[in-house]
């Protein structure tokens, strides 16, 4: 017998022949609930495109389409040393980034800090004091000076990845918390003075030069090293995208009389897509997640695709099957650990999907260790299928957002720089998204390389934020003050003598 060479890594066969009929029936029900076929993908893309355009209009829509005041792409000539601070959903990262003379190069060193869970529902002062303290510790550790007060002034790109209405590049009003944050007294306020006050309390001498969304950072960092990049995306704890729009196509900025040919990065905040529930095929589990969240009715799209929610969708589906008297699953088992809200995260699903064994031994061990549940092999086959369905749905829906931006901008080929734990670590997420794009655009087998490809990005919240700070300083030095807040107490623009 000849063995043929395969380009793909071998995958598990995944036969369902030993799954009893009644369990198989429920697997089919789950498949029905979570599968999004091509016609539905197309319907979603078309609605998505409509909503993106609406977000740019004066009347607006549910997708905010926030102008960021990042004007144009980097040229590669940006130089200097900048601080970058990333306040993500789970971690806090402080970096120092050096942009040398060589085009497209950078050096970066960084420290990571865990964001304590209790901070996510504490007060604004607690949050910003904690962040300021981390920045202080970073500076003390990395700068050999007696007192950090003596440091020469450093400029900071602050990646704050929540929807902000940016009236200026170094200034942003938090529209609402996402990713499970619920801190009082910050929504509706400018986060920059709050953070500056905390830095002052801690005696940290830095200037916030730019407030950056992670997607904008990703777009700029990727474009810095790959000039075919047109979109930056994050598929992580939250989900979102940014792209460059020409001012002339943004009716809601018309009153500012800016050059219509200027390009400005738009932070879509597409997690809010379909808050009206027009088109997304929500399951009872999606509805439950929304209704019991701190912000019901918001981030409908995000709640179906982002890492924060994938484990919870999975958990709710299993609890529902267990409580159904017609389903024989986890019989005589204590499922109290499974009943704990948000006890499973997307890495749990990723591990199930990575189990290479035909009898899903690793899944058995995972359920035993994490949930104290001893699963049977047919149960594990249902579990694996459920994880695949949830992961696949997330990837296919994410591709809809990318396709909608490309269709709106008539982009026929480009790279989409992507980052985030789901994109980087969830098995098959990238391939599943690529397959959905092929279905949406109808690229047949004759198209050798997909014209639009979602590729791993450069470090958006590190080098991207530093580049945006550098672009801002470059603009100020040239005396171009559009998008820079002149009135702020710590304004970057020196007062006219
Ligand atoms: C936030 C966005 C962010 C995305 C990815 C969402 O929850 O609203 O601002 O870009 O998560 O981090």
Automatic annotation (TrEMBL):
Domain of life: Eukaryota
Pfam families in alphabetical order: Hexokinase_1, Hexokinase_2
Keywords: ATP-binding, Glycolysis, Kinase, Nucleotide-binding, Transferase
UniProt-listed InterPro entries: ATPase_NBD (IPR043129), Hexokinase (IPR001312), Hexokinase_BS (IPR019807), Hexokinase_C (IPR022673), Hexokinase_N (IPR022672)
GO terms for MF: ATP binding; D-glucose binding; fructokinase activity; glucokinase activity; mannokinase activity
Domain Hexokinase N-terminal: 27-224
EC number: 2.7.1.-
An example Gene Ontology CC term for this record: cytosol
Enzymatic class: transferase
Residues that span the membrane, as ranges: none
Domain Hexokinase C-terminal per the UniProt entry, residue ranges: 230-471
Swiss-Prot/TrEMBL GO biological process terms: glucose metabolic process; glycolytic process; intracellular glucose homeostasis; mannose metabolic process
Record pathway: Carbohydrate metabolism; hexose metabolism; Carbohydrate degradation; glycolysis; D-glyceraldehyde 3-phosphate and glycerone phosphate from D-glucose: step 1/4
Protein name per its UniProtKB record: Phosphotransferase
Annotated source species: Tuber aestivum
């Amino acid at each position: 017998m000849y063995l043929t060479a395969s380009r793909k890594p071998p995958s598990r066969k995944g036969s369902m022949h030993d799954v009893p009929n009644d369990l198989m029936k429920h697997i089919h029900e789950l498949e029905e609930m979570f599968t999004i076929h091509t016609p539905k993908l197309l319907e979603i893309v078309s609605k998505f495109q409509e909503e993106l355009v609406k977000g740019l209009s004066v009347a607006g829509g549910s997708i905010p389409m926030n102008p960021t005041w990042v004007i144009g792409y980097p040229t590669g000539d940006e130089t200097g040393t900048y601080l970058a601070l990333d306040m993500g959903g789970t971690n806090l990262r402080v970096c120092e980034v050096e942009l040398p003379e060589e085009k497209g190069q950078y050096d970066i060193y960084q420290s990571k800090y865990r964001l304590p869970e209790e901070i996510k529902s504490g007060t604004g002062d607690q949050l910003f004091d904690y962040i300021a303290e981390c920045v202080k510790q970073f500076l003390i550790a990395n700068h050999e000076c007696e007192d950090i007060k003596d440091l020469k002034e450093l400029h900071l790109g602050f990646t704050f990845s929540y929807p902000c209405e940016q009236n200026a590049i170094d200034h942003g009003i938090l529209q609402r918390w996402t990713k499970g944050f619920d801190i009082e007294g910050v929504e509706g306020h400018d986060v920059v003075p709050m953070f500056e006050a905390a830095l002052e309390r801690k005696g940290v001498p830095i200037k916030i030069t730019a407030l950056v969304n992670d997607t904008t950072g990703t777009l700029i960092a990727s474009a810095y090293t790959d000039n075919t990049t047109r979109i930056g995306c994050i598929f992580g704890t939250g989900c979102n995208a940014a792209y460059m729009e020409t001012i002339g196509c943004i009716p809601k900025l018309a009153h500012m009389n800016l050059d219509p040919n200027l390009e400005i990065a738009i932070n879509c905040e597409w997690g809010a897509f379909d808050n009206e529930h027009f088109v997304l095929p929500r399951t009872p589990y999606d509805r439950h997640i929304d209704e019991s969240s701190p912000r019901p009715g918001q981030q409908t799209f995000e709640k179906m695709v982002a890492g924060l929610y994938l484990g919870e969708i999975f958990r709710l589906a299993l609890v529902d099957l267990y409580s159904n008297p017609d389903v024989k699953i986890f019989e005589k088992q204590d499922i109290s650990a499974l009943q704990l809200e948000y006890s499973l995260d997307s890495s749990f699903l990723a591990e199930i999907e990575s189990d290479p064994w035909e009898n899903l031994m690793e899944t058995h061990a995972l359920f035993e260790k994490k949930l104290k549940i001893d699963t049977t092999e047919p149960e594990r086959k249902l579990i694996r299928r459920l994880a695949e369905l949830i992961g696949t749905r997330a990837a296919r829906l994410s591709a809809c957002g990318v396709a909608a931006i490309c269709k709106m901008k008539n982009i026929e080929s480009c790279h989409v720089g992507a980052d985030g734990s789901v994109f980087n670590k969830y098995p098959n997420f990238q391939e599943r998204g690529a397959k959905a794009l092929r279905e949406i655009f109808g690229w047949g087998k004759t198209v050798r390389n997909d014209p639009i490809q979602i590729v791993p990005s450069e470090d958006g919240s590190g080098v991207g934020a530093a580049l945006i700070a550098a672009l801002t300083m470059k603009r100020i030095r040239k005396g171009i003050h559009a998008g820079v807040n002149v009135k702020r107490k710590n304004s970057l623009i020196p007062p006219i003598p």
